[in-house]
Amino acid sequence: MVSRDNAVHLGAVSLAILVLLVAAWFDVGLGSSPGAIAVFVLYNGLIFGGAHLSLALQGEDGMVPADARWRYVGALGVVLSCGALSLAVGDESLGPITVNAILPAVVLLTAVIYVVSATLDGYREARP
Length: 128
Description:
By secondary structure, this protein is mainly alpha-helical. Helices cover 77% and strands 3% of the residues.
């Protein structure tokens, strides 16, 4: 039997493939054009977080608690935003440092916050 999570994941992946087909139909291309960046963010967002966002909006726990889904979607949003910024304005400088030099630190900080908050949440649930 197919679980609800699997069905939603399949729908999100199908939607992501549709995004690629539409982008190819309109010849969006690759690179740092606004259309290509939008396709990059939309495709990766659907593949990696589309099902989590859908199930979190519905408030369904399923195999993963809704709070954990929201935490994941938030972290994914930061990572995808950093990727889009890197493509759009990565070589621009903020004083003596470029945007591409700052973004890995932002992604690393996001990963640390994600792991710590997930650990604390798991610890709180395990306590009587």
